[in-house]
Amino acid sequence: MITLTINDKEVSVEDGTLILEAAKQAGFHIPTFCYQPILSRLASCRICLVEIEGQRKLQPSCVTPVMPGMKVQTESQDVKEARIGVLEFFLSNHALDCPVCDKGGECELQNMVYKYGPKKGEFTEKKERFHEKDYILSPVIVKNSNRCVQCLRCVRVCDEAVGRTMLGPMGRGAHQEETSFLKSYMDCDQCGNCIEVCPVGCFMRLPYRYRARPWDLKSASTICPYCATGCRMDIQERGGEYIRAISKFGKGVNSELMCARGRFGFDFLNNEDRLTKPLRKKDDGTFEEITWAEALETIKTNFKLSSPERIGAIISARNTNEEFYLLQKLMRTVLKSNNIDSSPRWSSDAVSAYVTACGINEGGTSIADSIDVDTVLITGSHISDENPVTDYLLRRAFDTRRIGVIIASPRAMKLDSSAQMTLRNIPASDGTLLKAVVAELYTAKPEAFKGVTGLTKIKTLDSATLSKDCGVALDDIKATTGKLLKSDQISILAGTEYLRFPESLEGLVFLRDALRALKKDLKILPLLDRCNQRGAWDMGIHPAFTPGYEALEKEGLGCDRMVQAADDRQLDMLYVICENIAGLYPDAKYAVSALSKLKFLVVQDVFMSETAKLAHIVLPGAAFAEKDGSFTNQEGRAQKIDSLLPPPGEAKTALEVIAAIGRELDYGFGPSTADEVLAEIREATSMYREVEIDTARNDSALVKGKPAALRIADFLGKKRFDDVEAENKPSLPVPVVKVKPLSFKLVTGNHLFYSGTIARRSHTLRNLVSGPMVEVSVADAERLGLSDGDTVRVKGKYHEAILTLKSKKGSRDGIAFIPENFTEVGLNRFLKRGEGIQEVTIRKI
Amino acid sequence: MEKILLKNIHKEDSFKIETYLAGGGYVALKKALKERPDDIIQLVQDSNLRGRGGAGFPAGLKWSFIPKDPTMQKYLACNADEGEPGTFKDRAIIDNDPHLLIEGMIITSFAIGASSSYIYIRGEFEFGASRLEEAIAEAYEKGYLGDNILGTGFNLDMAVHRGAGAYICGEETALLDSLEGRRGQPRIKPPFPAIAGLYGKPTVINNVETLSCIPAIVEKGAKWFAAIGPEKSPGPKIFGVSGHVERPGLYELPMGTSAREIIFEHSGGMLGGKKFKALIPGGVTAPMLVEEELDTGMDFDSLAALGSMLGSGGMIVMDETTCMVRVSWIINKFFSHESCGKCTPCREGTTWLTKVLYRIEHGEGNAGDVELLDRICGNIFGRTFCPLGDGAVMALRGCMKHFRDEFVYHVEHKRCKVC
Amino acid sequence: MLTEETKTHIEGLLNKYKTRRSAVMPALMHAQKQNAGNLTEEDMREVADYIGLNPVVTNEIVGFYTMYNPLKDIGTYHIQVCANLSCSLRQAEFIIEYLEKKLDIKSGETTKNKRYTLTRVECLGSCGTAPMMQINDDYFEDLTVSKVDEILSNLD
Lengths: 845, 419, 156
Hints:
Order of helices and strands of chain C: HHHHEHHEEEH
Radius of gyration of chain C: 17 Å
Mean pLDDT of chain A: 92
CATH topology of the largest domain in chain C: Glutaredoxin
Number of helices of chain C: 7
Structural class of chain C: alpha+beta
Helix content of chain A: 25-40%
Largest sheet of chain C: 4 strands, mixed
Number of strands of chain A: 33
Oligomer: heterotrimer
Distance between the termini of chain C: 26 Å
Strand order of the largest sheet of chain A: 15-14-25-24-23-16-17
Number of domains of chain C: 2
CATH architecture of the largest domain in chain A: 3-Layer(aba) Sandwich
């Protein structure tokens, strides 16, 4: 601790604290422009100059660390004059077109001049003007250089956090402006962080331009509805239309950072296709509008007709914890059924195994802790596209703290540039790769493995064979092993590929146990792609466990088995909330045919999905900004969301509908408000008992759990779509497909701008993607004589599609990536239940 | 005085290594390589050699800040980004006696333990850059550069890096950024280059003239050097005289020679016998001197005592016909043109000053403009990131201190008082 | 398009420095030389790609340093006359006016036949031999009107 005086007040702060921060702790505000704690230091704007006793000149408080006994003045005459002087300089060439500037009313320059002065401007010269018309830099970013204050936050955030380096300061001195290469249209991540960090109206949202004054907006604090990073944002509306999403400095895990989906993808809320009335399917297959009373009556009747084992519920991982909890309560206590699940994309067995392997049931692990280590291993995730803001946070930590990063992924990604090693394994071989590493660890230190579960299997692992199976050179595996051995603190970030290909989880568990046996301080952070996937599991949206991961005596059916049961006419009734089974189940034809056999299908959703089209009753649902409740992100951080507007028309939240159905079946069913449900959740599971679900204090928001309520042995050894026991196999076979010339393995995941049902309905996001695409490595594209933008025919065993080709530098050859969620493509039409990875050919049209 | 720095420049083929060797070149290097590096640093400290780039920081002291860890990569960068208006001394050495500089750099690298060195030369000096490259090639050829220099086990690489038109790259940290392939903008200090310089490694940056003094110091000793000129800023100095004198050019004289002697004896007096009006003693940043100050010794301390500075020693002499408003405008235009744009006061302030000065000079001044200049200067001075903005203010204040009446006259009469 | 010769130059530069990025300034200068003093968009992209940088970096560099002429139309002979103080005291303005009249262009312009571009520049470090100008890479000092005539008539 260092003691100094600021404005004659004695202050004690941590060693190395900047004067600026020390003053803040002491209650003195020092204005800043270029200072941005997560970015590199510039000290260029000179607005934060302070007086330090004994120093000839005023010093920038944003880069000057405190010293013992230092005497600092932040409000002396000299400091005030300097501050006004700098503001006067800013105004001298500033456009001062505040009446037509989107930033007016929330502009840092405006606010600062209002507070400090100058009260009168003496600049009478001709101003420097860069342009008359604003630059349209992208479908979402527009720029007015005449308002720039040269703080370079935009340039730094793009380079240092986002990792794109699309913007640069062009020109010199007073002629300098921050733009893209030759002011051209930017083919960038479209995250708009340049807009968010801009203190003035220089970078602006194009979709929001001239649409509102900030004081006309109403806002609510919520969590982004896309991936599970769990970015906090304020959603804002004017006149009943959702108009802007903003992130705020110091709020949430993300602070000011967001990605394109989060910042611009909220406009699906305004989509004209929103469902607003309950619908009933007529005999001719068309829908008619009905009242809620009629709808609930029909649902009640049908529920009563079915026996518990013939009823199922599937809810998407975008709903609130409260909705999850109430749904499973309805299913388990009223309908006596454990047939509950959350995603058709993977099996419930995969989920059980993943939850256990990653220790999700053992409580939360924060991103901050996960990256405050010696080595980070990222596996089974295309993190840059799937969890963009997690990518930003990692990049900043990796680049500033020089953490060792190893990325294992068949596809190249933006974060590769921060990694010391990138391993390009064969798709679905993530576990094989990890096993190869485990084999090497065992060879290096066999004595440490005494008593490790699965040791008999570990002993039989042969790194050379495994290296061949996963397509990563043995030398690279050895280098990885070497890095892990040298590190004391390690974290593994494991993504959704482990859910798609749960055979891989055995490798993850082996590595986890091996590293623990080697006395490494190990953390595992799951990387998930739906905003409340972890919450769904925590709340017992799973056929095998209750809220808080208590294993059930009698396991119900997961989504896959429910579809199978429907196909076998073993399931009569399915209650689906916002989940698009027909669009995402990895065999479209099978899913549609199975769902069509149901006696009664009720779907609540915000849009008419492929699944809703098959329903007997369709209920209009509410989306995130229309709900109160909580989401739990991938870290296990429970976060409150507030509603801003009521859902459109007669639409209702899932919570209301579940409660209403419950009351129809059992008069005493409840509770029915989010707060009451949360209170009951706290009662029901110790995981949530102490958690502060609070927007301000994020640190205490991590859920707590007890170690391993579920045992991994219960779930490992089950293949994806069948129940083949594989106990005796030394290492579970990964579907290895020999790649023929011109033949590709089809892999999937999320697109940076496009990650699910709701993203399809965002006009802004659709504007960012030219259309459905297929991505291959640059080398493959060259081999095929194809170039970016070519239209190609992608042909698989069961389906073919016309797509636009994109090539990616550094990706593994022989892989074709098609994003999961393009309606136009129907990725799941390429897939066949029980067949694993499919092969496709690509030809130019 | 015996010439040290310019002794070779008029020789035939002065730039060739043979000429340099014939004149006793690289003898100092042989001598230095037999010494302990620390002894050479001590020698230079004892000589009291102060940096000739403008700031006058003691060279030996600068070297002594370099960490002694032999396993650490260190760099020497020669600042040959000569660009301060009125300054043209380094070019004479670069073009005509490149080996003097190279020898100085080899000795310096040996002293600080650098194995890699760069000469950052301003981009416009195409001729000088190729001369240097040829000379470096000759030095490699003769074994003065490369691996195991003269069999001593000392290795040194040297390369020329050309700037591309930015005065700010003469600021040492901006120079490093430029050398790293960035826009040349000053860095936050600390850390100072001696700790984290080029590529984040300890780096010494010295001016051409400073480094060119080293061979003579090694050869003739610290005492000899310290005895030339004033005690606290000794040694030979190249004064570059330009403007209204009969014989503009370079004059190598002892530090502390009076401005009057340089102008009226060495440079042949005022051009056309006109009356002397003002002298900028060390590049345009240095505040002006007037007639009664001409007996001041041209050295760091004497000029500092007058509120001016020796700077680069580039002396610009102006006669009675010179309009001081115009001079100020030209100087300020230069600074606003060269402002890197990083910090607000320099970027916006120098631009504003130039606009006001333009108006005054062109008969469009308004009442209050002179006071406005004072106020803008006050908002720049001491608040900028690097010394460039301060330099602009020093130049303008220096001029207004002596010739404020001309500014007032311009504003009031919308025309010049003298021309 | 970067010529093979330029690429060879750039390749050579990459060995000179500890980082590839350090080569960006001289590499851009080679690209500009190859096009007689003009830097094209394509070359800026190619240099960036060759060195492994985002094109925005080359844009930053060429915008900061005044010797790059991106997307300009510089004539065969780029005449740059120093207009800073020492030259100005020795009648640089007169030389500039003379050149403007002789070439029938304003400073900052290029003659119609693309032979000359006239630019007024800041100090070129040749103050003792003022006034002076630089034509392409060469310095011409102690200028007088007749000397300017002679220099121009001796070009190519």
